[in-house]
Write a structure and sequence with these properties.
mainly alpha, 4 helices, about 0% strand, rod-shaped
């Protein structure tokens, strides 16, 4: 009888060791997944902010060039009404460009990320940058 008890104790110890090993393997996989997910989200966020910054810099340069164009038109003697019409058309075109850029950035994001974005237009995208 003592031999049988020793066998049961030995089997229980092996089973316990096996369970500890398996739980360690599962926790390692789970922890690795969590760290990988966090790194991926951080990398994606930085890429998104970089894209928004690049579009913002392009936008600033476009506005600067539109201002210079208006100064040139004023020097050429174009009437104020014509300058206002040209300015309105330029601003409408510029607003359309902004909307297209934000739409392109959103559409290039994976579908699982699109729902978590904190912007859907130019103003909200610029708030994200600040």
């Amino acid at each position: 009888m003592p031999f049988f008890l020793n066998g049961c104790i030995m089997e229980n110890e092996m089973l316990a060791n096996l369970l500890w090993f398996l739980s360690g393997a599962v926790m390692y996989k789970f922890g690795s997944y969590i760290f990988k997910l966090g790194t991926t989200i951080n990398l994606f966020t930085q890429a998104l902010i970089g894209s928004l910054l690049m579009v913002k810099k392009i936008d600033d340069q476009m506005l600067l060039s539109l201002d210079r164009r208006m100064d040139i038109l004023k020097k050429e003697g174009i009437t104020p009404e014509e300058i206002k019409d040209i300015t309105d058309l330029n601003m409408q075109t510029h607003e359309l460009w902004r909307a297209m850029m934000i739409g392109t950035i959103i559409s290039c994001c994976p579908r699982s990320i699109q729902t978590t974005l904190k912007f859907n237009d130019w103003k909200s995208a610029m708030r994200v940058l600040k």
